[in-house]
Amino acid sequence: MADDSNEPVEKLVDQFPEATGADLAYSISKAGLASIPVIGNLLGEVYGLFVASPVQENMKAFLITLAEVVDLLRANGVTKEDLQNNGFFRDAVTQAVKISATSRQESKRDMLRNALLNIALNPSADEDQIQLFLQMIETMTPTQIALLNYFRNPHKRLAEVFDSTRVAMGLPLDQGIYGVMPHLSSKPDLVKNLILDLYNRGLIPFSPKNNVLESTTITNTGIQFLNFVLTNPLEKA
Q: CA dihedral defined by 124, 127, 128, 130, rounded to 10 degrees?
């Protein structure tokens, strides 16, 4: 088999097969629905519009990201054989593919890129924790990630918005958030739910119920997660 490892990324992406409705058509047939032309055609059209096409676009975008990851690793001394023999990395790629297939968000692709780089360069990392972090990438929203990153060093962000005396005196939790992220001020219930979810995941040590910004604003797990998804290990000083 020819070695395509040096082919341009665009050429490899173009080779990705176009999604079709064949599998769905088979399922419809099994259910006896394909014999009803109107329903069968409608389901096929719906599948093409809302499933096949978006998944195809998401996968092409992720394949480009994955190719960039491999290029970066090989440029830093990690061989193709190293990656092929790294079962931990292969499993992570498989999970990342599943995550990316259902997400159009560029921020999630960026997080998956950093995650894969960190996994490849740290094969001794705790596998249970890595699996948990990958699940978090899939299920957490970009706003949650932004909130968690804000909580990592809130006083620095607050000092950019409020005068130093007001920051030193302390601000209510919601007032600080809305000052730094004003677009959330019209969504107080959503913000509370997002913060409560961060608390339940063990990423922050406080609940939004008290509306108080604690001095310790992020747990060790939260720090590790942010480093995992926001830090490119090859760009460290």
A: 100
Q: Which of 119, 128, 126, 145 is nearest to 233 (CA)?
A: 119
In-domain check, residue 26: yes
The domain tally of the chain equals 2
- Cβ neighbours of 6 (radius 10 Å): 5
Radius of gyration of the chain (CA): 22
| Other Cβ atoms closer than 10 A to 29 | 12
The answer to the question of residue 186 being in a domain is yes
What predicted TM-score, i.e. pTM, was given to this entire model?
0.74
Contact 194, 151 (CB under 8 A): no
The predicted-structure confidence for 186-218, as pLDDT tens digits, reads as follows 999 999 999 999 999 999 988 777 665 655 589
